[in-house]
Amino acid sequence: MNRPDLFNTHRKRLLGVAYRMLGSRSDAEDVVQDAWLRWDAADASVLQSAEAWLVTVTTRLCIDRLRAVRHEREHYKGPWLPEPLIETEDPAPSPEQVVELASDVSMAFLAVLERLSPDERAAFLLREVFDLDYPDIARMLERNETSVRQLVSRAKTRVREDRPRVSVSRDAHRSLLERFMEATRSGQQAALQALFAADAQFVADGGGKVLSVLKELHGADRIVRFFEMVARQVGPRLAYRHALVNGEPGLLRYLDGKFDAAISFITDGERILACHIVRNPDKLQQVPATLLSLPATD
Questions:
Q1: DSSP run (H or E) holding 109
Q2: Within a 10 A sphere around the Cβ of 101, how many other Cβ atoms?
Q3: Which of 17, 60, 130, 136 is the most buried (most CB within 10 A)?
Q4: CA-to-CA separations, 210 to 29, 207, 261, 283, in angstroms, rounded
Q5: pLDDT of 47-58, one tens digit each?
Q6: CA 3 to chain centre
Q7: CATH number (domain holding residue 64)
């Protein structure tokens, strides 16, 4: 197998590592392209495993990138959310979508990973998502095995503490989204109040590029007041369509028929525990063209 074909064999895996590490598809693609340039210049005759070499290079590039953007993200205008992966919602998930969801690309999971250090994030993902052995991870991160085990242990504790534990059926999730669409268009207080858990969280990412809430909102009362205000201002001009946002049922929001935001949810099946809205246009550039406008109606 020639060098480009061998690289392309592992490209999807490398993108998977990079996206989970960085929370940005555009950054992940840049890293994988950089990995290709290094692969193209490497002496393949001395490599024992092309896959191990490529995963190692990609991981180290991601760690370098995370360290470089940490200051940038700390000074980001408003809350920072991952760049969403958006697909049309089919009647049932495809096998590929099921695999992706099982491999943890949900917005909620990526948001938890943001709280880890770059090395913790890499060690945790390589071990818990990609199922690599500790000695291999130690070589990739240029650490001893004991140190890597400590990194994974710390990361697992933090993820376990912050990650939702409730499994919700697709039908229950979709039903809740239908209620959300109606309530946020109408602005009816009772309907909105019934949507959100008492300790619900709302996070909006406009990146300073569009008007957005600059702080996280905590508690149903504050969130309900926000959506009441939105409904008064633009409720009749809002429309939604269902989509898969990072492998889970979510919504695309349109204002005056133009694509405006991608919305993902954490839910227990009855109430919304968290609502994440990405409005930063830089993070929505790779939305499929077929989803940029509302479907035609008869």
A1: helix 107-113
A2: 16
A3: 17
A4: 25, 7, 11, 12
A5: 778 888 999 999
A6: 31
A7: 1.20.140.160
